[in-house]
Design brief:
single chain, 106 residues, mainly alpha, 3 helices
């Protein structure tokens, strides 16, 4: 006989942890933008400085988009995992509720 024994609390905690990672990634994204943006203009306004700045910031948008996607993915995975834990908990309780209550012979 096979047995399914899911630790629903652990599954839900795992989901919450992933959502937390997503939130932290959003904070990191904001810090990244703040820090990289603080360098704007430090190379001067001459031809070399402007050309260097243009190349330097080319990766900004794709990096920010990647961080956004990673954060959203972590949060979505966390929500899914947390929801799965709740569903397993309900199914397990439904099964328990459906089990016949043993009658005692007196």
């Amino acid at each position: 006989m096979s047995e399914l024994d899911v630790d629903t609390d652990a599954v839900e905690k795992g989901g919450a942890a992933l959502e937390d990672v997503g939130q932290k990634l959003k904070i990191i994204r904001e810090e990244y933008i703040d820090k990289i943006s603080s360098y704007r203009g430090c190379w001067g306004t001459g031809e070399f400085g402007e050309a260097f700045e243009k190349k330097y910031y080319q990766g900004l948008d794709p990096t920010v988009a990647g961080l956004d996607a990673l954060a959203e993915s972590a949060e979505a995975s966390g929500r899914s995992l947390g929801g799965t834990g709740k569903k397993f908990k309900k199914v397990q309780q439904d099964v328990i509720d459906q089990l016949p209550t043993p009658k005692r012979n007196v």
